[in-house]
Amino acid sequence: MGRRTSKDPFYPDHLASDTEAEDYDPANGPACGIFDFRPDLAGTAGNPWNASVVQLFVAHFMDKEPDADIDEVTDLFEGHLKYLCLRYKESLQGEKAARRRQSLANRAERQRNVMQLWLRRLTVAAFHPDLQIHIPILRSLGPFGMSSDESDHNSGEGIRYRILRKPWRNPELANWLQFFDKLYSIWRLGNMTGAQPHPRVPSNAISIRRPPVRGLPWNAYNEAWFKKLTDYDKILLSPKMDEKYQFSHPPSLRAQT
Fold this sequence. Notes:
Blueprint: H1 18-23, H2 48-64, H3 70-91, H4 94-127, H5 135-141, E1 148-152, E2 160-164, H6 171-186, H7 190-193, E3 200-201, H8 223-227, H9 231-237, H10 251-254
Parallel strand pairs: 2-3
Antiparallel strand pairs: 1-2
């Protein structure tokens, strides 16, 4: 990581950026390479980026020292990574550090909100027999397929969150997902799970932080966006061209909203 001693500063060029770490999807491969080894010390030691870093380090070490105990190597490096994360956060001082800590807090909040949104929708699907058929597609979408949001402190009505649209997603899919949110509130499932959703309001703002989710049915993608893709882009996206998913809900459930 470019440091000669433990007292040397942490160099940004040897660390993952906030955007890299937040946008990282393990399905797209390793977070970095052995020659551009960059842990995410601003995040948690167990986040997806750092989990990939651990795998990379252990594989490289075992290639050099095949007789080593892989479990021991993994435990030792995970412990060292936790220590580095702690030391990095302790090294932040002054006004610059305050801005950095706020940036990290905002990042953690976005990740937490998206994860909770995804879990709420899975909870709704699992709760009703007519919706359980949708559990596989919700799992395929994952947290990265959910709309992110940003807080709006100037609404005059307390903190609300503006929904950030994903340009790659079919609007029909967005409406279909939002129906789960309505049912979650109507059925008061939050009283069972203890997870109350925060107020989210539509907006024209767009989020391009994360790449599109790969391997979905072709009609999960925005038609205009899809037409602009190159052949190579489509290979990377790997859409299921032979599957048209029915993004609809039973009339009996729609009547409840």
